[in-house]
Amino acid sequence: MATKIRLARSGAKKRPYYRIVVADQRSPRDGRFIEKLGAYNPMLPKGDENRIVFDKERMQHWLKTGAQPTERVERFLRAAGLITTKAVYRDAEKGPKNPDKLRKHQAKEEAPAPAAKEEAPAASDAAAEAASSAEEAVSPSTDA
User: What crossing angle do the helices spanning 71-80 and 56-64 adopt, rounded to 10°?
Assistant: First the structure.
């Protein structure tokens, strides 16, 4: 049985409150779950200590047994220091959906390395030195 650590929504309309639960991945979002691990209240300010509350020992137990956290729960665990590796999701690999952002994203990937930028001014400095030495070579012959 594949298990997920995910959010189950509860609370009133336009007043969400989520329970952090371990459930079989085939069960509905708000349906049957194996164990409640904590709670998430998005209505509280970001700095509030009661915004995200969960039992770290039980969370570590379920992670060791192979339960996979969802993206949102993984962010909570990363902020708490329980997960250090970064998971790669399929949507993140695709890049931005907005065409303008996609062009910028591709331009950043194709941009030359900073070392190449440093070589270009060095080449122009060498050309300037060669030109100045050529002027010096011409000027003594005109003075004679």
Answer: 120
